[in-house]
Amino acid sequence: MKSTSTHRRFEGVVVSTKMKSTAVVRVDRQVAHPKYGKYFTVSKKFKIHDPAAQANVGDVVEFEECRPLSRDKRWRYTATVKKASS
Q1: With contact defined as beta carbons under 8 Å apart, do 14 and 57 qualify?
Q2: How far is it, in rounded angstroms, from Cα 40 to Cα 61?
Q3: How far is CA 45 from CA 24, 38, 42, 68, 76, in A?
Q4: pLDDT tens-digit profile of 37-79?
Q5: Strand, helix or coil at 82?
Q6: 66 and which of 19, 40, 71, 76 could share a cystine (Cβ 3.0–4.6 Å)?
Q7: Closest CA to 23 of 2, 41, 5, 46
């Protein structure tokens, strides 16, 4: 999906869908240690707006930046990249 928007986009794994129209997504990235060079995983959780409740726990989803929707929700669900294996 090619987009011309300037909004930041991420992919991550859905870890919770217990809130109404909100999903919590964990984004993992590999970071090198500044001195030793060893790579390790750093995780961050984002709350995304999902009004149709299309995301399920375990799905890999894509989301993008949007205007603030609540105190800590500034991201919008765009697509499911990969469904969770049952």
Answers
A1: yes
A2: 22
A3: 6, 23, 10, 16, 14
A4: 999 999 999 999 999 999 999 999 999 999 999 999 999 999 9
A5: strand
A6: 76
A7: 46
Which residue segments constitute the domains of the chain, with CATH numbers given? 11-82 (2.40.50.140)
Three-state SS string over 38-56 comes to CEEEEEEEEEEECCCCCCC
Q: Are strands 73-82 and 39-49 parallel, antiparallel or unpaired?
A: parallel
Q: What is the pLDDT of residues 6-23, one digit of tens each?
A: 889 999 999 999 999 999
27: nearest Cα among 14, 50, 43, 8? 43
Please tell me the pTM assigned to this model. 0.87
Integer Cα distance of 58 and 13 in angstroms: 6
Cα separation, 68 vs 73, whole angstroms:
6
